[in-house]
Amino acid sequence: MSSQKSASRQVICQKFTINFQYSVFFTRNCFDVQDSTLIDLIDNLSESPKLLAIIDEGVDQTNPDLAVRIEQYCEHHNIQSLPSMIVPAGEDCKNDGSVIDDIYSAVEKYEIDRHSYILVVGGGAVVDAVGFAAATAHRGVRLIRMPSTVLGQNDAGVGVKNAVNYHKRKNFVGTFAPPFAVINDLNLLQTLSPRDKRAGIAEAVKVALIKDPAFFDELYDSRHALAYFEEASTKHMIIKCAQAHLDHIATSGDPFELGSARPLDFGHWSAHKLEELTNNELRHGEAVAIGIALDSIYSGLKGHITQQQVNKIITLLEDVGFDLVHPVLKELNVVKALAEFKEHLGGNLCITLLSDIGTGFEVNQIDEALMAQALDNLMSLN
Ligand SMILES: NC(=O)c1ccc[n+]([C@@H]2O[C@H](COP(=O)([O-])OP(=O)(O)OC[C@H]3O[C@@H](n4cnc5c(N)ncnc54)[C@H](O)[C@@H]3O)[C@@H](O)[C@H]2O)c1
Ligand SMILES: [Zn+2]
Q: Is the CB of residue 129 less than 8 Å from the CB of residue 55?
């Protein structure tokens, strides 16, 4: 029976490859009319390019002249600048579906086509939401990202994903869509709150721990400078962290996350849950710092790394200024959070642990009692 069925089956095996390429710039003052970063991206590609700037409300409030500066830059360089849109800050932008509707309406109204540009200036949340709208309007309008937080510049804004929240589920709707380009303007960070500056440092500690022992040492040695956001250390931390994320996307063999492994999600299974439990009162980076501490302690209890190494990781995080003991840890149900993370991965649990400082490895099982012990140890830190 089955052989008869297969005898009548025909198959055409479709296969093609697309090369994605985009540049990530690290610069300052990119809206100074003399600065060519933005115009060099645009000018050779279209005769009269249109650009729609979409700005994070938090950035707009702290940089009230930004929209005008973008308009002046466009005028000076003969880019058709359209009236800027200001969108809600932070998770509100990802929770409120009307933001996406408003962007689609603007795309329609201003006849933005696949050769026009959307320029987004904002934190990781706004970049995510605008990225989703840009990727889906006309099946993809060119998106130039200008992340304005440390976490946006060293992680969220440089990769290939976007998402919005749906029915209170984080990142439930989204696409994989590489940007046209990313411009990390370090001057934008000047108006960022200390809390948001610090939050992004957690992602640098994360990549250093799983991939780059020398980077970990650099972060450790500059931890006091990072705590007060000393310029050179902060810039170095951002560029190296962004580079590590970009390298991973380019070389992991799974840029669109078709498999279950998420090595860059070290410390994230509990972080996602902590963000949810605090109703996003904890910043993503703050939750990741706690998650890194927890999974480092667990790696230590399992005997994969030494207690001395665990202590060094905790010292780095604490000296940078992270508060690793948060009241919400009491509400963290390890079994439930792991089950949810497993579902998020598509059915196979895959958690990154440390076998050394600078080396991550994946496991498919977690000893839940030992993880609960790790959580107790974390809560007893003083
Ligand atoms: N797509 C991805 O690959 C990816 C990766 C990691 C995180 N993320 C997402 O990123 C989001 C977190 O991003 P975030 O940490 O940048 O926080 P955020 O976007 O929530 O911004 C935090 C706050 O900083 C304000 N802000 C931003 N830039 C500012 C500036 N220059 N001056 C003054 N205020 C400014 C914002 O208005 C907001 O109030 C989450 O939604 C997370 O899911 C996405
Ligand atoms: Zn993260």
A: no
